[in-house]
Design brief:
heterodimer; A: 405 residues; Rossmann fold; 2 domains; 6-stranded mixed sheet; 4-stranded antiparallel sheet; globular; B: 273 residues; alpha/beta; TIM Barrel; 9-stranded parallel sheet; 13 helices; 49% helix; binds pyridoxal-5'-phosphate
Amino acid sequence: MSSILQSSATAPGRFGPYGGRYVPETLMVPLFELERAYEAAKADPSFQSRFHDLLKNFAGRPTPLQFASRLTEKLGGPRIYLKREDLLHTGAHKINNAIGQGLLAAKMGKPRIIAETGAGQHGVASATVAAHLGLECVVYMGTEDMERQALNVARMRMVGTQVIGVESGSRTLKDAINEAMRDWVTNVRSTHYLLGSVLGAHPYPTMVRDFQAVIGREAREQILAAEKRLPTHLFACVGGGSNSIGLFHQFLGDASVKMIGIEAGGRGAALGEHAARLAAHQGFSGARPGVLQGTYTYVLQNEDGQIAATHSISAGLDYPAIGPEHSWLADQRRAEYSAVSDQAALDAARLLSRAEGIIPALESAHAIAGLVERLPQFKKDDLVILNLSGRGDKDMDTYQKHWVQ
Amino acid sequence: MRIRSAFEALRSSGELGIVAYITAGDPSLDATPKFVLALAEAGADVIELGVPFSDPLADGPTIQRASERALKSGTTLAGVLEIVRRIRKSSQVPLVLFSYYNPILQMGLEKFASAAASAGADGVLATDLTPEESEDYRRIMRLHSLDTIFLGAPTSTDERLAKIAGCSSGFLYLISRTDVTGAKDSLPDDLPALLRRARSVTVLPIAVGFGISLPGHVSVLGGLADAAVVGSALVSEIEKAKSVDGAANALAERVRSLKEAARHGLSRREVAP
Ligand SMILES: Cc1ncc(COP(=O)(O)O)c(C=O)c1O
């Protein structure tokens, strides 16, 4: 076991100095109850079998680990495998966590779930799980995101979820989380907050990671079966950090496996132009450890501790903080993080579409761009697993604006 | 000390205290000292000065908008401490800084505590900080003789209420309902039970807040709590007013009518043990 796993296990909810529980008192007892319910569910065979049944029969797991032969050839670098989370029901990895927490909500006897969403993928996943389990569902979404991810708004409404537009702040993911937390404080006795990434107060970062860890467990087995060896590199995009930690987690003990998280570099390195929290080494400014929305982690902020505006072409990466476990992995240098621009992500989306016939989500396109930018550093026998976290249907408007003029 | 003396005076008079919340820097840094003096003169027993934050997730729309106005006018935590210093030149009203944790953390606990104490603040309340995460914070605030006030909530167990009270000094702030801040028409039915639970675990004075706006609420709380916290109702007076002087008058008027109700409502001495 690596020291990272040991130290994160010493204080529940802490990853080194990061994590914790910074919430209004009203939420503390509900968080303890959630933690207890989650611990019980982990050890409950009937919960686990229900979870795995829904992952298989509702979401479509396991997802393939596909050798990307033409992309590999075209780039002339490492052998590249794609973990096809884009093939899941609703189109992204978000469904793994939504199923887990949806079952937990039902088990806790909460008839109502609420969720925030940026790209809309977590909202759609929560909405469909709620419909499947017969729960009431309300999703908060910034109005800027409702505009750029309109397809997902329609999908949520189709399955009977109420989508509430959030007009405050930058009208994106952070503001949707604020509004969801206000709803939760108000309706906490009847409502489970189905948080969509490894963010927020304990137990969320741990619980969401565990629900997403199925990605890495499958990928590790699949790559060993296909290549008879471990990968040398893992790539994933990092918004809050759930698809990346989901892939990384099973490999943390494998010291030879390099893990690379790709953030949104937006349109520049100045504060306000990007959403890169762990890429100060590339000149992206404004990130310091601080407290936002329940957790202590790297946060983009000004000198006075006010949270900064962010920009990314990708709604799912457009967020000023990062999951606390990533902050710790970065400090420990167990994982590396860098950022790519809006334009690089757009180019990468086209590259994958043409080379493999797969249209990626803009979020996942960041991971591809990160790999492309690193090409000079690879050795010929390097072996990459790239997490294709979602499909690009929701982003067709943006792609069309950029490519078809 | 100022907080303790204020509550001791209230206890001996048997009168319910009024804790008045406004957001510092709303609508401007210059307006805040005027508002505080007007509130104090009208009889507010303790003033809570809100430090504006970009992401006020425990606040309803009224205080969210106040935060936005204050940030737009250039308010920083350092600026709020400067306001405290100015207020102290002409008033000894007890002052509590009411903040989200991140601005305090970014200034640095030590630097914040020493600056706040030397400016003349009496206590600190961080909305998103609970006993569990606050060991260093409490030690450092105490070192600078700042009271640490924590929130108790309807969802808190008796055991937690005891822990929260144990970490608090000055007074215990009880949240009246599971909700964000914001004026409401009525008080929740289970409030007396919550107050009794809190009383049974602490001898600290208890202030009740969230949703309190009307003289009628204050009359009901007399005999149950030591003080009522009024926030959004005051902040909306500032929002509605056409001028800073107009706002100051409206704030004073509000507090006077609440104080009136506090004097004529059931007093603590008549009802409480
Ligand atoms: C397809 C896809 N990938 C990635 C993300 C980013 O989230 P996370 O970093 O939690 O995986 C999102 C978020 O909306 C998404 O929709």
